[in-house]
Amino acid sequence: MAMKMIEGKNISHSYEFEGSVNLSLEGVSITVQKGELVAILGHNGSGKSTLAKHFNTLLPLQQGTLTVAGLDANESANFWEIRRKCGMVFQNPDNQFVSSVVEEDIAFGLENYDTPQEQIPERIDRALQVVGMSGYEKKSPHMLSGGQKQRIALAGVFAVNPEIIIFDEATTMLDPEGRRELMETIRRLHRDHRKTIIMITHYLEEAVIADRVCLLNEGRVMAQGTAREILTDRDLLAEAGLLPPLPVQIYYDLKEEGIILERCPLTGEELVEELAGICQ
Predict the structure, then answer these.
(1) What pLDDT does 157 receive?
(2) Contacts for 51 with CB less than 8 Å, ≥ 6 apart
(3) How far apart are CA 174 and CA 177, in angstroms?
(4) What is the Cα 84 distance to its own chain's centre?
């Protein structure tokens, strides 16, 4: 039986602003199994980043229950250990850097977790190798491209060996090449290192690699299922204020013109296969 790395039940959270209370999450329940890649989708303001910040206790629980890697997230004594087990890569990598030299920045996290000094160089080298940034040890993070910065930020997280890695809209500020580089790195972490990954995004094309998708709308779980179940349901996505991935939209456009494909494609490669099938 797979281990539950995250189990949240009936999580609700409100923000107070200028005397008014705004409900961001309402009764959210979610489970993430060990080794899963789960995408949490939703339009801006749907509550997905608020939920992610609960997973590594950046936001304290107001209502509901949550366990992370078997630890009760409502117990303040567990906060430090939960944050060690659950790393996060944020939208703006510049906000994560504490040093002007890559290797010193990665070493900062290791030193804070009392890593023996003799192990630190090896951990830095391995982390940079995993994210495809070997040879950048002496570089300044702030002189790198957006995609390179995010991979350096990820190296700092990976170096401390968390069991869970959260990407909180980590591709939002990147150009297409930077997004491609980071998404390939996420795939490798999931495929080769079997990390449990939670990917917060509103780019539905990124969610096609997920084992499972959780769709949020107005602070509530609207649907959960496989990537194919959620991302090919155009009506469901429209209700959540989202557009389907382009291959899915093309499938429905063709269908309206009387051209029926055997299955609804999720990726460009699948779309080409389906189109080739009807041309034979």
Answers:
(1) 93
(2) 8, 11, 25, 28, 30, 40, 200, 216
(3) 8
(4) 17
pLDDT, position 203: 87
Could you give the 3-state DSSP secondary structure of residue 22? strand
User: Hey, is 44 helix, strand or coil?
Assistant: coil
Adjacent-strand bridge partners of 166? 88, 198
**Is 165:158 a contact under the CB 8 Å cutoff?**
yes
Please tell me the predicted confidence (pLDDT) of residue 174.
Answer: 87
Q: What is the pLDDT of residue 118?
A: 93
The two tokens of residue 42 are 């939703």
Average pLDDT over residues 227-255: 94
User: Percent helix, strand, coil in the chain (nearest 5)?
Assistant: 40, 25, 35
Distance between CA atoms of residues 200 and 166, nearest Å = 8
Across 18-46, where does the E strand assignment appear? 20-33, 37-41
Cα–Cα distance between 231 and 262 in angstroms, integer? 17
Residue type, 43: H
Assess contact for 185 and 127: CB atoms under 8 A.
no
pLDDT at 218 over 90: yes
Facing residues of 6 across strands? 32, 68
Q: Specify the range with the lowest mean pLDDT, choosing from 50-59, 129-138, 170-179.
A: 170-179
The single-letter DSSP state of residue 245 is P
Residues 212-219 have a mean pLDDT of 95
Contact 43, 219 (CB under 8 A): no
**Strand duo 63-68 + 164-168: pairing:** unpaired
Question: pLDDT tens, 181-199?
Answer: 889 999 999 999 899 999 9
Mean pLDDT of the chain: 92
DSSP 47: S
Instruction: Return d(Cα 35, Cα 50) in angstroms, integer.
Output: 22
Place of tokens 């090919």: 232
CB 171 within 8 A of CB 154: no
